[in-house]
Amino acid sequence: MMVDSAEGMECAKLEELLVEETWLEALAGELQKPYAKNLCRFVEREMRGSVPIYPPPHLIFDALHRTPFHQVRAVIIGQVCSPLQFVCFFVPQDPYHGPGQAMGLAFSVPEGIKVPSSLANIFKELRQDVGCSLPSHGNLERWTVQGVLLLNAVLTGMHVSLLDFFGYQVHR
């Protein structure tokens, strides 16, 4: 933990949540910028608050943990509608409303959870465009092993305005 002397508030370091070395190297400069420090304070407050965070804190950076920087071959970015949308090429995504749905991977849900409509649309396009055989579930972990970075632009559903900028920086 680090202490923010300006507010006297403890703040979990983003590096403690983002442990994948290649991404830590690639984003080293970003993690020191003022918006990242504000994000850090915000995440810490949310983690201590009574409102649940989806995905849970240990899965916030799961997309980066599962797909190291040097292995990325394709990027799919999920975007929950936000008043601060920076670019319009993000794929609209169904928000996660309950525990056990969000996995830290855009569009992905654990096996046994109903496939979200946005993912069903992606599956439909893949089947029509390239003839892929598709799973009967919405767990996309296997895609990450193949180099598909499934990045949620806002990383959690609870901090849209701060995390959409961080997601945008990762995408850049």
TrEMBL record:
Gene3D superfamilies, per the entry: Uracil-DNA glycosylase-like domain
InterPro entries to which the protein is assigned, alphabetical: UDG_fam1, Uracil-DNA_glycosylase-like_sf
GO MF entries: uracil DNA N-glycosylase activity
GO biological process: base-excision repair, AP site formation via deaminated base removal
Domain of life according to the entry: Eukaryota
The protein's name in its UniProt record: Uncharacterized protein
Originating organism: Ensete ventricosum
